[in-house]
Amino acid sequence: MPNFRVFTRWRGLTPAESSQGEIKREHNRENATLSSVSIAMPSQCNKLPAQMKEWTSGSSMTGIFKMSDSNKTVFDAVMAPILPQVLQGKSCNVFAYGHSGSGKTHTIIGYNYEAIDDLGLCLATARQLVDALNRLNEPNKRDPLGVGVRIYELRRNSAYDLLNDGGECFVREGPDGQVYIRGKTEMLENGKVRVKPIVTKACWSFEDLSRELQKGLKFRATGMSSVHDQSSRTHAVIELEIVTKTLLVARDAVIERESELVPIGKYATDVYIEEQSRAVIRNSDGGYAPNPEYQVDQARIDAVEAKKAEFESFVESAKEHESQVFDTIAGTHACLGGKLVFVDLAGSEYYNDKGGPKMNQSAQEKQVGRHINTDLLALKEVIRARAQGSARIPFRSSPLTMVLRPHFQNSEDSHSAMILTVSPASSEFAATMNTLKYGNMVGAAGSSK
User: Fold this and answer.
1) Does the annotation flag 110 for ligand binding?
2) Residues in a beta bridge with 93
3) Is there a binding annotation on residue 98?
4) Does the annotation list 215 as a binding residue?
5) Which residue spans within 235-381 are E strands per DSSP?
6) Which of 107, 129, 365, 437 counts the highest number of beta carbons within 10 A?
7) Residue 21 assigned ligand-binding role
8) How far is it, in rounded angstroms, from Cα 200 to Cα 438?
9) Distance between CA atoms of 255 and 197, rounded to whole angstroms?
């Protein structure tokens, strides 16, 4: 049985599409939990070869949403079952995948922030989450539970912090094997150097959270697709984490101690290089030999190394304090650290009615499209490798999968979901078929163990 839950959501036809014909589709319940999808072009359409006029998925779909289904219907089926997991401190991931203009952003984020009954999955879930945390906060309001929000988008090899005016960040793998998203280096007084992580905005009410989300999404890059003038040609990642003020203060202390260590570490390196450089001279043949007139001042090196070790201990103490704070609060509130990660994937590449790329794409669109497709292929391979229990998971295949690595590692696939957003318009048959094929491979991966 597939571990990763896959849902299909048919969006409504636009007025312009209504006259073009509609894809024939059937949904067949194969067993108690899974369905298959069959699609076919209208009989009057003769543009495609026979082998490209119809397609049927395997038994890979957990659920299928009709054109008339609202965001609330999607929430009840996709999010309601996994919200209790988040309130137990676990992580859950939700992806929206589909071609440009198929309704991904409408599903994940929504466009009408005032329509409580039709909010996108992110805000609808946040509303339920805040209500649950408020109930938990009633007995003790000294260090209330809240929701920490992080929003960033991925374009090519960089991340952009949407809660920090869209500032560019860098995706790096640290010496500890963990992946970090860091902003640009800040130069402070007394030689301090600070590299802050992506901004976390703490929200104590649904209104605050909705406001921060709307503010951040204004910085998302759009309008780069010839298919859809408001298409998001980036992957947007929205993280909701259960936090408290005490925990956030402890995390900030770690960053501060790290900024204090940087100039000390740099000075220790400079002293070592200086002493070693003085201890050698260049000979006539261009090589190096010991300098008989200088002896390495090992005491000087040892002194700065001791100072460096002292500041490293401050960093370790701050990290231990953060861990202790987390464990103490989690002892009372098991939900602490619970996380929901919503990924609004960039539009998968779109096709003309012969199955190839649209001919009116600009050179820039083609380049962006190739990079997006590389990311999406890497994501599929990560999901497949996890489902098959592979010893090696190819997280390093793209910046997208690198960033998602900790979220995958801290979650169970059964608590994750992918929503395929597809158009019923006959003009989008090839794009819809490719979206369903992608989802079919994701949903069927677990059964191929």
Assistant:
1) no
2) 341
3) yes
4) no
5) 235-244, 280-282, 288-290, 339-344
6) 107
7) no
8) 33
9) 8
Would you say 371 is a known binding-site residue?
no
Mean predicted confidence (pLDDT) in 181-196 = 75
Lowest average pLDDT, out of 100-114, 125-139, 360-374, goes to 360-374
Cα distance between the two ends of the chain: 9
Tell me: is residue 99 an annotated ligand-binding position: yes
CATH code that applies to domain 4-245+335-447: 3.40.850.10
Q: Are 239 and 150 in contact (CB under 8 A)?
A: yes
Asked which of 67-76, 85-94, 279-288 is least confident by mean pLDDT, the reply is 279-288
Q: Is the pLDDT of residue 232 over 50?
A: yes
Is 232 annotated as contributing to ligand binding? Answer: no
What is the widest separation between alpha-carbon atoms in the chain?
93
Match 């012969």 to its residue by tokens: 354
Q: What pTM was estimated for this model as a whole?
A: 0.87
Q: Quickly state the pLDDT bin for 39 (edges 50, 70, 90).
A: very high
The pair of structure tokens assigned to 254 is 């770690």
| Token pair 């292929």 in the structure block, residue | 377
Strand order in the sheet with 35-40: 24-29, 35-40, 54-56
Instruction: Scan for tokens 């609004």, then name that residue.
Output: 344
Which residue, 93, 100, 3, 58, is CA-closest to 441?
A: 58
- pLDDT-derived band at 147 (thresholds 50, 70, 90) equals very high
Domain extents in the chain:
4-245+335-447, 253-326
103 assigned ligand-binding residue: yes
